Amino acid sequence: MEIYLDANATTPVLPEARAAAIAAMSADYGNPSSVHGTGLKARAMMDEVRACARRVLGAPTGELLFLSGATEGIQMAVLSALTALRKRRESGESMPQLLLYGATEHKAVPEALRHWNLLLRLNLRVRSIPVGPDGRHDLLWLREHAPRAGLVCTMAANNETGVISDLDGIQAALEGSPALWMVDSVQALGKLPLRLADRPIDYAPFSGHKLYAPKGIGLLYVRDGAPITPLMAGGGQESALRSGTENMPGIAALGAVLKLLETGDLVKPCGVLKSYRDRLAIALRDAFPEIVFNADPVLCLPTTLNFSVPGVSSKVLLDLFDAADIRVSGGSACGAAKAKPSHVLEAMGVEAWRCASAVRLSFGPATPSGLIDEACERIRACGASLRDNCLTQAFQRPSMPVDRINRYVVDGSVCYLVADPSSRRCVIIDPLPELTHQLVQWIRCRSYILTAVLDTHSHGDHASSAADIWKSVPAVLTDADTGDTDSLGWPRGSQEIPLGTQWLTRLHIPGHTRDSTAYLLHDARGLRAAFVGDTVMPGALGRSDFDVSEPLSFGPSLKQLEASVGRDTLLLPGHDYDGRYACTLGIEIARQPLVASVLASTMDAQSFAAAKAVLERDLAPTEYQTMACGARVDSCSKMAAAELKPSELLARIEQGEKFVLVDVREPYEHRLGMAPQLGEQVRRQAVPLSSIINAIPDWLSAEPDTTLVLFCRSGSRSAQAAQALRRLGLERTVSLAGGIALWPQQQHEARQVATA
Ligand code: PLP
Q1: C-alpha distances in angstroms, 717 versus 326, 331, 690, 691, 721?
Q2: What is the pLDDT, as a whole number, of residue 664?
Q3: What is the pLDDT of residue 636?
Q4: Distance 535 CA to ligand 1 centre (A)
Q5: Secondary element (H or E) of residue 370
Q6: β-sheet bridge partners, residue 530
Q7: Number of other CB atoms surrounding residue 278 within 10 Å
């Protein structure tokens, strides 16, 4: 059963609201503008809902318009205020210079201010009102700037943190100001007492879907006497202030919600909601003892918690909660290639690590107590899963087997931890400063002995964090024999680094830098993989235009690499911007003409260096805004996505086709999550993306007529991994479209909530 704790994003529609909407679409389907009986009935219903809304919002006077939602309400409020300001300018009156909005306002507000300011050619200065570390407006700042403001926008409560604005304080700060005042009241409805007419609020937008009504219906309150300009002109509905036939099912549904709000039958008393929040906070603390809450509960809506866990990103937390079938949301918008930190937390001055780990948990004010109990139980299971995977500071000895090659990626840079379960020794290759904590925790949690920390070259884009790692690992978990090492961490005088049943050797391959080195991993079966740094990356060669580069050595180094590892050994790169995991010289020969030419000896070292220099001229930064370490000649987007819909998969299984279903989610998700039910004839494997490299050799030598079907939570990680595996020669690899989220419900296996 899904537990939905993302009510600040949207809520399910209440059964009473659903019934009212259906009635307005069936028996009572009239158009309120019609003058016949069917129309009159519809109008009476609409009038009744408006009257109820006036009582619930404490707005006996002024306009109360039905429109599509808060974003439209915000547009209309801003357009109305700015049109009035333009009229003032046109009539030669003195003009305010500022349009102000709270720094933590929903994006709709600053965007609407900028949009209408531009369109109406007002050219006023749009400025954000700073907030303090508690998330509340800086009232001294506001008092100072309010006399020069034409419109001030301050939300009633924040959607990300739940912080309730000090409306009394804002009202006092605005005293004597000519500014109009908009209060975005979306998150306040049903959670805070609202007496709109008791304050000099000019505009207050509301949204139905944030409180159990459907999407597409909202309200805008406009104070009597406040300027008003229609956003939509047409048939003259809503006293010609908002034309267009009214959304009657939405209005009916909103009416049902408002009626229950008025009778007190919908929302739990504030004290009860606070006790729910406290129970959730205790469960979170039990699960993640180092948790930090990002806003003071005393100042917040009783239905919202925003928290961060040291060393655990929002992405990991969201995947973890989703695996436990709890829906929450991250504090950051991930639309860009690099996840942007939440502007709300940033405005509050919250440290970067807390922004990167922030999660919002919000429940509706009608949530039943039993759901909170179940949520608490699952949250504790989430904590146990993280501890069991050594991902929180309060870890426990893990029960999961250890992978030989563990891969970590930060903004396209890759670090590896090579582990040997028989000797409990490990080596880190190309450590990244952002990973120190995680790597040290890995070692401490599993009691492995750190034998070496190696760099494949002196990096141009970051400093090696080898020294920090050595400092942070307890002495008993380091190899006493390590002795003196060179600048890349290799023990001086040693031919190899022994790792129990495995060993590492090195190969000098200058080019990208003078000191570029490949580390070759061997075991009794032979050469297993080569860590090649930036020399060869999937679709690119490391750039060789640095002061420390040796461009003329690059071609010979590639030949040397081929002589040592052949064309089929997995090459593990130091950068992987497109999520391709690995490559081989054979694959790169087919995709990078320069590699093909130099290895076929049709191009000498000099011509190779010259051709490469042309590619590297004016290299743009990566999508992570980091320095590109090579020119990509084989773009990821050129590869076709290979997806299989659940229905197609089921049909092909029925026809007897052979599949292996591979769960690529991380172990902390496996432990909590469901997997598609597909019967005994379909083989299954759990291969987390962080350790997928370990499975590639076996897959490459497996039966050629078997199709690998990768799946994850949403289908996005598995789609990328499927592309990468196809590039590596596993052409029959596909991704399950939509992941577990779109797998038919009845086919899910029973969820096993681990509570250890
Ligand atoms: N204002 C706040 C505070 C919100 O939380 C939201 C929705 O997230 C909006 C405005 C936009 O509302 P709507 O989705 O109805 O346009």
Answers
A1: 19, 20, 11, 13, 6
A2: 94
A3: 52
A4: 49
A5: helix 369-388
A6: 520, 571
A7: 14
Q: Which residues contact 441 (CB under 8 A, 6 or more apart)?
A: 311, 390, 391, 393, 395
Q: Classify residue 417 as exposed, middle or buried by CB count within 10 Å of its CB (0-12, 13-18, 19+).
A: buried
Residue with token string 């598609």? 676
Nearest CA to ligand 1 atom 8: 9
Would you state the pLDDT for residue 677? 75
pTM for this model (two decimals)? 0.85
Token pair belonging to 667: 């172990």
How far, in Å, from the CA of 200 to the mean position of ligand 1? 22
Whether 334 is catalytic is: yes
Pairing of strands 98-102, 149-153: parallel
Does the beta carbon of 218 sit less than 6 angstroms from any atom of ligand 1? yes
Instruction: Tell me the C-alpha distance between 614 and 159, whole Å.
Output: 50
Question: How far is ligand 1, taken at its centre, from the CA of residue 138, in Å?
Answer: 23
| Residue 577, amino acid | Y
User: Residue 618 belongs to what H/E stretch?
Assistant: none
Q: CB under 8 Å to 621, separation ≥6 — which residues?
A: 627, 628
**Rounded distance between C-alpha atoms, residue 720 and residue 539, angstroms:** 15
Query: Is the CA virtual torsion 383, 386, 391, 396 positive or negative?
Result: positive
* Ligand 1 and 69: CB distance under 6 A: yes
Q: Which residues have C-beta within 8 Å of that of residue 32, sequence separation ≥ 6?
A: 39, 42, 43, 45, 46, 237, 246, 248
Report pLDDT for 617: 87
Tell me if 52 sits within 8 A of 259, measured CB to CB: yes
Q: Which residues of the chain have pLDDT under 50?
A: 332-337, 747-756
The Cα 208–Cα 187 span in angstroms is 10
Question: Ligand 1: which of 78, 107, 186, 212 to mutate, most ligand atoms within 8 Å of CB?
Answer: 186
